[in-house]
Structure formats: structure tokens, C-alpha cells
Amino acid sequence: MDKNTLTKEEIESLHELFNFYDKSGTGTIPTSDVRNILKGSRFAVEGNALKRLVSAADPKDCGAVTFPQLLSGLQLLHPAEGGPREELLSAFRLFDKQNTGLVDVAELIGIMAKIKGELGVGEDEIAQLVREADFDRDGKIDYQEFVRTLFEIEQLS
Confidence class of residue 79 from pLDDT cuts 50, 70 and 90? Predict the structure, then answer.
């Protein structure tokens, strides 16, 4: 196993800690709690690394993150060698036909709806998740929003 890959046990442990800090039960925690959740794990970070992780997990600077966003931030900060990050980036580039770093929401919904059977998720759920991923409501999704959406779809299936 790659040293940067989270094990099932580590994910479960991080999720338990996340739920502990999610005192209101909304499925989000303040970004200020990310350091506390990671403290004691092999992914504990400080200083600039912590800032990069929080920025990756919360690119719109909302001040809160969901668990899939936290995992996405960890993946972007600690990519598996030759693994999913390269695959996700390649997949994103397939959708990013103009090479702008953005994917059209409607186009992404259409493509994902065509492969919904492989995803194990319904078309309505896909459309809702993709629309929610477009935080700034500009009709476009950037790479970090794309990765976060795929993590959320994976958790639904």
C-alpha cells in the first residue's frame, strides 16, 4: 500500500473525529477544527501545509468543510503515487475540452447520467450533487469541486 493512501481504519477514525467536531449535526465543521481532527494521525499538518490542505478542502473559503471535502483536501495534499490523483486529473481533462480548468455543469450532468449504472447512483442524485458542487453558481466546476463531487457520489453508492 502506498504511504499516502488512507486505510479503511484511518478513514473511519477520521470520520469519528469529524462527527465529534460536527456538534450541530449539519455534516460540516469549521475549517479551524481541521487541524484538531488530523492531530495524532500520520496526516497531521501544521503551518503552510495546513493552509494548503484547508484551501484544497474549502476552495471557496466558506469557513466550513464536509467530510468528503476533508478527504479531498487530504488527497490533493498527499496524492497516492501513480494512483487516483492522476486518474482523476485525466478524467477531468476529458471533460475540460477547452483546457480552461473548468467543466460545464450541464455537460457534466449529462455525461454522468449516461454512466449512472456504473456509479450505482440515480440520475436525480447525480444532478443534485453536481449542482451543489458549483458553489459559486457560475455553471462551471473546477478540478477541486469535481473531485469532491466524485467522493460524494462514491459515498452514496
Answer: low
